[in-house]
């Protein structure tokens, strides 16, 4: 009977005992022929002293025996892990080595290693080199960027944040500090938009009053303070800020939950009444009907501010509030909804709202947040380890593409309305001074984030966490914060250190400023492609100006050649850049003409440029 030839599938190490593991180690020991190497050393010694040679030889034999015993025991203790690894490695290596040994006449030894061991080590070396190459890809020093000006995409609404009423009502901030804060916000952030302070209740103990409208006195003091500061210190007044109805039944209006259980119609009337009262107050203060009204923040996810609410509750509130506003004569205002914690939650809610034609007629913008904490776009280290290395977040980008598709289908803009805790995967209470990074890393990370929201989600607006945060507010919000560093709140746009009399633009404020300082509302985002994954470009057409924000995530300089289709450059390139050790330094002016422009961009930098086009 012909002997069966052993193949790869015949090598199995299931149910081995200790002696079999020891036998494997003994085989490996023989493969490498270490005992033979030591024997040759002994023979060299023999030339001088036979006794020395015998002593070395005895040492070698004993060391070999002990190594086999101890290594065999160690491998035995690893159990299933060793079995799984050896089953694959030794079986495949042995099979390949046997075949190659047969073909070479059993003479293919290298460094005293037999064929199976050579294949195993060589394969491991190749695998290691591959992993290192993947983790540290080579950077092309050239980037070819093509931008299509002929077919502009979504219009820009702006950059901003939430305005917290408690911060602005503090009497610890001096008038001069407020002046510097507002002027810095307008000049350094630019294209400013945001949500005005949320109105609460003046007296929660007041009994309900039957009748139309909201049954409690509404506290608009935060709105009044912010409006007054902008009126005094900004030539554009309150600008593109808009109000919030603050439909919050978890903290602000918990009594609405009892009403919902007993009289759902009255529950909807109360909420719609507050929406109408908020719009009326805004019109009185600003002299115009607001364009947008934010109904709520994270109603069903995250904060869950619509306590016990459902998607059907959201749809009912949108329709009831919308009807009441139209009946009150407000034809312009539309809602910013749903502002859920994540892109996926926002998609789920908006798909349900979109199935109701009347509800969609009241929606003016789709708001979403970039959470949870520690996720792809919330956590800066994750951005720097992945997107800054030329890689993509598959699931997060897929969700954003779906959101962009929904936006384009219904013709409703998409806004990213909150992100925070860039270096705190556990949330704000985990942030201590030791977590604060180099600002340029934070600027790079948030610039990448802005790029991806505009490119993949089709966003028209990008918000930080809060517009302003102060040391006084920080101590009040985190009474047990210990050594928490005010500057660790890098997601609010402006920090006011009242004790040091400083007004500070945060890293997120700097990143947003690289866009907002050079753009106006209505600028159109453009379709741009970069040949280099380490060079990200966010291009815009702002009237007769081409504006681009270029993020070089490589550690070395990249020469970027920008070619525009459908127009031509016609003037001087101006701009600014931020890099390690230098923020907002001027870009040397360069004359540009024709359809292409070449720029040398430093490694690990953000550069904003603007140039006239014709």
What's the SSE blueprint?
Elements: H1 18-32, H2 34-46, H3 50-78, H4 80-103, H5 115-135, E1 142-148, E2 158-162, H6 165-168, H7 175-189, E3 192-195, E4 200-201, E5 218-219, H8 221-233, E6 240-242, H9 255-262, H10 264-286, E7 292-294, H11 311-327, E8 334-340, H12 343-354, H13 357-361, E9 363-369, H14 380-386, H15 394-410, E10 414-418, H16 439-456, E11 459-466, E12 468-470, H17 471-477, E13 494-497, E14 502-505, H18 507-516, E15 524-525, E16 527-530, E17 535-542, E18 545-552, E19 558-565, E20 569-579, E21 582-586, E22 590-594, E23 596-601, E24 605-612
Helix pairs in contact: 1-3, 2-3, 4-5, 7-8, 9-10, 10-11, 12-15, 14-16, 16-18
What are the defining features of this structure?
42% helix; eight-stranded parallel sheet; 614 residues; seven-stranded antiparallel sheet; 24 strands; alpha/beta
Fraction of helical residues? 40-55%
Structural class: alpha/beta
Low-confidence stretches: 1-22, 28-34, 431-435
Indicate the radius of gyration in whole angstroms.
33 Å
Note the beta-strand portion. 15-25%
Distance between the termini: 87 Å
Number of strands: 24
The number of helices is 18
Q: Please list the strands of the largest sheet in the order they lie side by side.
A: 6-3-2-11-10-9-8-7
Can you summarize the main beta sheet?
8 strands, parallel
What coarse outline follows from CA principal-axis ratios?
globular
Mean pLDDT: 84
